[in-house]
Amino acid sequence: MGGRLDGKIAIVTGAGSVGDGWGNGRATAYVFAREGAQVLAVDRDPEALGATLELIAEEGGIAQGHACDVTDSDQVAGMVRAAVDTFGGLDVLVNNVGGSKHGGPTDLDEEGWRAQLELNLTSAYLGCRHAIPVMRERGSAAIVNVASTSGLRFTGSPQVAYASSKAAVIQLSKVTAVEHAPDRIRVNTVVPGQLHTPMVETRLAGQRTGGNVDELLAQRLSRIPLGFMGDGLDTAHAALFLASDESRFVTGTEIVVDGGMTARCD
């Protein structure tokens, strides 16, 4: 039995990781390659891709690393060209890059606001902008944008730019999906909740609980009805469905991966 992405050529951005464990991008690149895709694994830090590429190689998968700042239009265009030059085309794009910055409108400065929009929203726009012309040539294709439950509701920390930009990613997907449905390019969004990814230890605990990882994990877990935290593999498996032909009639919508958190009233 073949893999669910056999014959597909995919780009996964943010495919490195800030630490050990399953970040969304690393997990998605790994799962896609395991399911038969040829993967261009992209990160702005080429060293961060090393462990991802090793994991893929151990499974016998096919992947090539590529360094790219996905907020730079010329570099994103080069990323798409690299997929075409290396593998011969492009069938799947996963716009996964993102990051949060603490603060509401009165304490997040304007520079921080603009930087968050660039990182979380412009990166997805540029990916779509440069990938779609190539995808049209394939006859059908899939784009998966990665947002956040912060784009759906307040999740416990004021991060107005992150929440706003991730909400906009969801709408970017919807508008793009309708426009390019005649091209048979499906566009959907995975909306992860409060997962235990390497970002918890390397960044979020320092921002929110003075570096106390256990306290942050307890806070996040208390919001999840299922009673456990997922990780990047949960995001990856949702993206896998949306990238595969199994979702051929699914476009302009979201899969929320949050253990029921956003369904709660409190």
Summarize the structure.
Helix content is 43%, strand content 14%.
Which characteristics define this entry?
single chain; 266 residues; alpha/beta; Rossmann fold; seven-stranded parallel β-sheet; 8 helices; 7 strands; 43% helix
Shape descriptor reads: globular
Q: Percent helix among the residues?
A: 40-55%
Total helices: the number is: 8
- Spatial arrangement of strands, main beta sheet: 3-2-1-4-5-6-7
Briefly note the CATH topology name.
Rossmann fold
CATH superfamily: NAD(P)-binding Rossmann-like Domain
> Can you count the beta strands?
7
Q: Quick one: CATH class?
A: Alpha Beta
What does this structure look like?
This protein has 266 residues and is an alpha/beta fold. The protein has a single domain (9-199, 230-256), classed as Rossmann fold (3-Layer(aba) Sandwich), CATH 3.40.50.720. Helices cover 43% and strands 14% of the residues. It has helices at residues 24-34, 50-58, 73-87, 110-136, 160-179, 198-208, 213-221, 232-243; strands at residues 9-12, 38-43, 62-67, 92-95, 141-146, 185-192, 254-257. The protein has a 7-stranded parallel sheet, sandwiched between helices. β1, α1 and β2 form a beta-alpha-beta unit. α1 packs parallel to α2 (50-58). It is globular, with a radius of gyration of 17 Å. The termini are far apart. The mean pLDDT is 94.
